[in-house]
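hey can u check if this looks right to u? its 202 residues, i copy pasted from the old doc so theres a chance i mangled smth
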Amino acid sequence: MSRERKKRKVNKQFLFFVEGETEKVFFDTLWQEYRLTSAKTIKILKNSGTDWVEKSQRMIKNNSRVQPNAKTTVFIVFDKNNDTDSQIKAMIQKSKRLKIGGSKCEICFSNESFELWLLAYFEKITPGFKTQKQLNLALSKYLGETYVKADSVQMQRIIKENRTLEAIENSENISEFSLDHQSTNVGSILKEILSELKSPTK
C-alpha cells in the first residue's frame, strides 16, 4: 500500500477570490499539486456590478467558514475584460484599504485574460498584446487539442511536472501591473507563496 501524501502547511493563510471558473480550476489544481492546505480558492458569484473588491468583502463577511486573521492574505483575482481603466484603478485603491480580521489584501490581475498566465507554462511572454483568440489558439497548439476554458483535465496537463516555476520565470518580463501592455502578476504572487515550500514529491 502506498504511503499517504503529506499535506503542506505554512504559517500564513491565503484566500483567493476569483471571478472566473478557469481561475478556480487552476488554483484548486495547483493547491492539490503542492498539497497546500493553507490556500483556499473561492468563486465570486457573478451578479450585477463590476467591483470585485466589494463582492469579496461581502462574501467574507457572510461566510462563517472564511475567517481571515493577521496571518491571512486575501487575493482578488480578475482580468481586464470589459472593465475600464478607471474601474480597475479604483478597485486597486480600494483593495489597499481592505482589512478584515487583520488580513491584508492584494490584487492578482491579468491584462487581457488569465490565459496569458497559462501560456507562460509553455513560452516566454513579451509585453506585446495577444487577443483572446490568439491566446486560445496558442494554448491549443501546445496541448495538441482545442483549448477549453476551465477544463480540469487540460489544467492538470498544463500544471504537471512542476512547470509552475518555469511559468513564473517566463512571465517575469510582464509581472508589473500595466494597463498599457500585456501583463500578469500571477507569477510573482505564486513565487512568494511557493518559496515557502519545497518542490512537491514526485
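DSSP finds eight helices and five strands in the chain.
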